[in-house]
Amino acid sequence: MAENRVTLNIDGKDVTVERGTTVLQAAQQLNIHIPTLCYLKDVQAIGACRVCCVEVKGQRNLLASCAFPAAEGLVVQTNSPLAREARKLTVELLLSNHEMNCPTCARNLNCELQALANQLGIRDIPYQGAKSPVIVDESSPALRRDSSKCILCRRCVSVCQEVQKVGILFPSKRGFATTVGPAFDSGLAEVACVNCGQCAAACPVGAIVEKDDTQKVWNALADPDKFVVVQTAPAVRAAIGEEFGLEPGHAVTGKMVAGLRTLGFDRVFDTQFTADLTIIEEGHELLKRVGKALKGEKVALPMITSCSPGWIKYIEHFYPELLDHLSTCKSPQQMFGALSKTYLAEKAGVAPEKIFSVSIMPCTAKKYECERPEMCDSGYRDVDVVLTTRELARMIKTAGINILQLADEDFDDPLGESTGAATIFANTGGVMEAALRTVYEVVTKSALPSVDFQQVRGMEGIKAATVKVGDLDVKVAVGHGLANAAKIMDEIKAGASPYHFIEIMCCPGGCIGGGGQPIPTNWEIRGKRAMAIYEEDKRLPKRKSHENPFIDQIYREFLKEPLGEKSHHLLHTKYRKRSA
Question: What is the tens place of the pLDDT at every residue in 123-175?
Fold first, then answer.
């Protein structure tokens, strides 16, 4: 209706938008670029940085376009001399209090402040003097925080509090002494941080970054006494090409494998193999629980997936009374680690203490997961080092390799074979869809009419579906982002959950939106990465986990049976209550 729309003029061009649209959003509809720093689409528009200020006719002061609503007849100049000079002054003041070690910063050449300074033609800083207090927090195994690079944009605060509902980051003190971090200057390891890294993904600068463990891997590759194996998560192949100039939405699986082999890894394996294994173990666990429930036995339903370590730490902190609802399965990463130092050691004829197991993940929380004391059922630390997608890209570039120029290569056997079901683990809803593909055929003994469960796909925060499996109506739900997980958990806590099986992924969009993925990661990019994953699933000849011939082989040769004694020892674990 006309009364719900307003027309304004921006830089001489008229645009009609819905009432409530901001000036920034209206300008974007005209393809007019207004620079921002603190703005985060759909999450934060607080006008704190003042970089997006524009001149509005009739207004005495410049206004923050990200927060000022469009109005009928408004006349806006985004690039007037006054707006341009104010913008430049704001950035100069930010830089005057910024640690200017750009060449050695992890965000060099991918820093919004650096790019903005270049765009505005800033070549020197006229303001010199005292700098704000510096806090460098190295306490977390996953993340490093350096307040000397912080520009107080509060993006990390909004993501932590609104998107993830963890709420461990705050602005503290006032004025020049303001810092952003945990309360009372605590370290990230001292609070209920879940290590998800969404703060690092949202940060426009290098104030919060992943802990860099690349040197540990370089050292292992150079050690002749180490047999260095690597596993790669499905989401990595759909994103690492972005670090080499590809547009989002291109999976570069074979080229990534070739790059890893060129770096010197002794074996290059696929985490998707143990994703298939997870489905077998988790599917049998679900059927066992449902079977008991149908007999009237008391059992924790709904059962909830356990392959997202940020989510696991979240439930340990905030919903410990519901821990019994978690599947006891380890994540695919940790299953692979346990098998690399047992089954693989036997097959390759290598002493397990010589195996150095490296994991390439889209996730910073995986760094924490591999250090959990529970994760040593092989008799050794199951996974020695976790690198994010970004860290692997840096290693490949350090070696002077452009993976896009390499010929495709295949993963090594026996832990490199996988199905399409394992591939879609990268996307929100993927674990659920993979499980349904197998559980349906295990129960009904008949082939699925279609392997694509569209009901659990998409980027809605919470998706629910009822799937007919034989005579049973299986009620399932999928949640991604911890704010959505909290809604699902509150429902279970209230005794109002109708579901049998729930998938929860810590990061928005699932692993394709993980905290260790290339920056930027927004909803458009998440969607393109997700489509690349679904396309890879379609291309694979086998699309159900139970069709993987090497899964059959590992049960015959080593594990014997799902939920058996050996698989229970190596592939399953338990979790514990933590303070909130």
Answer: 999 988 888 889 999 999 999 999 999 999 999 999 999 999 999 999 998 88
Annotation says 210 is catalytic: no
pTM of the model: 0.96
DSSP state, residue 248: S
- DSSP lists the bridge partners of residue 505 as 480
Look up 547 and say whether it is catalytic.
Answer: no
- The C-alpha angle with vertex 75 and arms to 73 and 79, in degrees rounded to 5, equals 160
Please count the other Cβ atoms lying within 10 Å of the Cβ belonging to residue 487.
13
Q: Which of 374, 557, 561, 565 is catalytic?
A: 374
The yes-or-no answer on residue 111 being catalytic is no
Would you state the structure tokens that stand for residue 387, as one six-digit string?
């690198």
Nearest-CA neighbor of 575 among 384, 335, 313? 313
Please tell me the distance from the alpha carbon of residue 502 to that of residue 476, in angstroms, as a whole number: 6
The answer to whether 150 and 137 have CB atoms below 8 angstroms apart is no
One DSSP character per residue, 321-388 reads GGGGGB--BPPHHHHHHHHHTTHHHHHHT--GGGEEEEEEES-SHHHHHTT-TT--TTSS-S--EEEE
Q: Is residue 282 flagged as an active site residue?
A: yes
Three-state DSSP at 556 gives helix
b (16+ CB within 10 A) / e for 445-470: eeeeeebebebbbebebbbbbebebe
Q: Which CATH superfamily is domain 281-329+417-571 in?
A: Fe-only Hydrogenase (Larger Subunit); Chain L, domain 3 (3.40.950.10)
- Least Cα distance to 509 among 437, 463, 460 occurs for 460
> Was domain 94-210 assigned CATH 3.30.70.20?
yes
| Residue 551 DSSP SS3 | helix
Catalytic annotation on 566?
A: no
Residues 367, 402, 211, CA angle at the centre, nearest 5°? 20
Query: Using one digit for the tens of pLDDT, what is the confidence trace for 410-431?
Result: 999 999 999 999 999 999 999 9
Cβ neighbours, 10 Å, residue 238: 32
- How far is residue 261's CA from residue 228's CA, in Å, rounded to a whole number? 11
In the residue annotation, 450 being an active-site residue is answered as: no
pLDDT tens for 10-59 read: 999 999 999 999 999 999 999 999 999 999 999 999 999 999 999 999 99
CA neighbor of 374 nearest in space, from 306, 298, 282: 306
Sign of CA dihedral 8, 153, 518, 485: negative
As a whole number of angstroms, the distance between CA 579 and CA 340 comes to: 33
In CATH, the number for domain 2-79 is: 3.10.20.740
Active-site residue, from 140, 147, 327, 357: 327
Question: Which listed residue (282, 316, 433, 441) is catalytic?
Answer: 282
Side-chain half-sphere of 33: how many Cα atoms within 13 Å? 5
Domain ranges of the chain: 2-79, 94-210, 281-329+417-571
Catalytic: 242?
no
Residue 357 bridge partners (DSSP): 229
Q: Say whether 327 is catalytic.
A: yes
